[in-house]
Known about the structure:
Elements: H1 8-19, H2 23-28, H3 45-50, H4 56-68, H5 70-78, E1 92-95, E2 104-107, E3 112-113, H6 115-119, H7 121-128, E4 132-137, E5 144-148, H8 149-165, E6 173-177, H9 183-193, E7 197-200, H10 207-217, E8 221-225, E9 227-230, E10 233-236, H11 237-250, E11 257-261, E12 279-281, H12 282-285, E13 298-299, E14 303-309, E15 317-322, H13 324-337, E16 345-348, H14 355-367, E17 371-375, H15 386-394, E18 398-401, H16 403-412, H17 415-418, E19 427-430, H18 437-447, E20 454-456, E21 490-494, E22 505-512, E23 521-522, H19 526-534, E24 541-549, E25 555-560, E26 564-567, E27 570-573, H20 574-582, E28 587-597, E29 601-610, H21 618-631, E30 640-643, H22 657-664, H23 681-688
Parallel strand pairs: 4-17, 6-7, 6-8, 8-11, 11-12, 16-17, 16-18, 18-19, 19-20, 29-30
Antiparallel strand pairs: 1-2, 3-13, 4-5, 9-10, 14-15, 15-23, 21-22, 22-24, 24-25, 26-27, 28-29
Amino acid sequence: TSFRVRSRWPVMVRNLRGRVGSKVEAVVMGEAVASEDEDLILPNHEFAQHAHVPSFEKYLEMYKRSIEDPAGFWSDMASEFYWKEKWGPHVYSENLDITKGNINIEWFKGGITNICYNCLDKNIESGHGEKIALHWEGNEPGLDDSLTYNQLLDRVCQLANYLKENGVKKGDAVIIYLPMLMELPIAMLACARIGAVHSVVFAGFSAESLEQRIIDCKPKLVLTCNAVKRGKKVINLKDIVDAALLGSSQNGVSVGVCLTYANELAMKKEDTKWQKERDVWWQDVVPKHATKCDVEWVDAEDPLFLLYTSGSTGKPKGVLHTTGGYMIYTAATFKYAFDYKPSDVYWCTADCGWITGHSYVSYGPLLNGATVVLYEGVPNYPDPGRCWDIVDKYKVTIFYTAPTLVRSLMRDGNEYVTRYSRKSLRVLGSVGEPINPSAWRWFYNVVGDSRCPISDTWWQTETGGFMITPLPGAWPQKPGSATFPFFGVQPVIVDEKGKELEGECSGYLCVKNSWPGAFRTLYGDHERYETTYFSAFPGYYFSGDGCSRDKDGYHWLTGRVDDVINVSGHRIGTAEVESALVLHPQCAEAAVVGVEHEIKGQSIYAFVTPVEGVEYSEDFRKSLVLSVRTQIGAFAAPDKIHWAPGLPKTRSGKIMRRILRKIASRQLDELGDTSTLADPQVVDQLIDLADT
Ligand code: WTA
């Protein structure tokens, strides 16, 4: 591979120097300087001195090597882990150009390893067995628990042995439908230990969604718990699982065992509905098993997990990640983007049901031997100070969350923050959607006392780990910018014809060349993988996001350009919501768009055409919302149902979403040309009905 030093790198360094004069250098020299430049937050000298990557020059040097010599760079990273057998002569092979044949990505093929071994046994063997691996904080303040690395390994082995006894073998799928109990990462690690492929389904998905996933991956077992408390609400998970398993068996997929953890604080065992021939209480069987369980050694390219995510069309896609590359990539990104040190206490507020919880609650941190805080509840229960209470309680040093939470806490007022010390904090992180500059500043100034760099990490379920992210300490930050690519990542911005844009520009965000954490396929549908991600702009992986690059080379993500919306950092396909709506017997047609929302980033706005003769009523509206809640989950419920006697369509019948987006956001003077519509009057009707 040839390395073209893209002109913007040196330009960026020069511009930064020019713009802030000698300030960056002064900071590097350890002098205190105030930035008068509103949009530039200078690195902190104290921090940079001890950072893994202390300067932009050092980053450039490492970045250049990662692009010029990916095999050497990633082999060095991989060598920090245990491999039973080293990978073959070709560290990686890739083809991202659909016009040249099938898309095929492999990293460390032939290498034999196990990610659970590297998370647990390896850390224990190097003397950290008594270090806390997990601090668990319950929904109710005062309720907590913890596990050392030794104890975590024991628990993982017991469950792994139970799974094996029940016939789970290498390559078998296991569905995990659990809330944020310690059993959730334990279950993931137990599957990984025996080479089983876990598929965690966020415990906020409905029975229908769970059923769909069960039918798709045909698990040997389902792991769940009876109920969970979120804030004041009790959620009966077992009922949801029962309904999903009934549905899947009617569709020919029967699951033999439903291993159910008794979460008696939320619901008593005797109140739980039970099917004797299928259901087993976790606590009755798992603790009886041996605390030693041999590792199943797997190839680097053997599958590790499936995670279903939303796309712009059709049903959710099973994103498949394999073992070796994912392991190295999550470990390295965690270490560098959070400047992780062994003395850190790390807390990520994401649920393990999403990719963030896979890569940066479980695998990335544990591979680094970190102490991880796991929180069961909601972040504003019993009051909006809960996060900082938890930060102080565990002396959290790295805090990673989503802009939606930052915005909602910001609205609740500074007093909830400042009443806590927070002095343990040293790095903050953001993920899930673009963080707007005002939220960024509040996070930086109020939560972090203007002391902690913010890693605004851009990435996706598909990418496995961070793609564009600040390396704290290394360079000046701009509020709202995810800054520069991680090692080995070559982001490119292309125009609609797929031409790479240089310098200051704006367009579609793609990635050139593969990186170890990239997903390898969509489960059972490699063709969809190729067409969805690699055919829009041949030669590149297309992310689905828009992005601009400023004169200093900083990247600014601008949101999805496809029909995917991001509600509170949760990814939802408009097509999924539409199909949930049209399942309602009185709904003839539906079109869903995202609109800007102060707290959630985006909210769901649905245009609904009722069947002939059905009138608008509040009950109808409620039952439409309910339809989405039961088909997908509460988090996908539309905020607004807009009555639509008709939808704006072209003469060929295509819905013009552009117009619907403008109506939804009340940008009525920007509707553009409506003359190509089959019936332009529809638009006026919609405007008239906007506020009913
Ligand atoms: C969005 C979550 C801007 C983006 C890790 C992406 C972001 C989608 C950021 C993936 C960020 C995530 N800045 N946008 N820092 N992080 N996104 O698969 O639109 O749930 O395509 O992965 O979230 O969502 P997913």
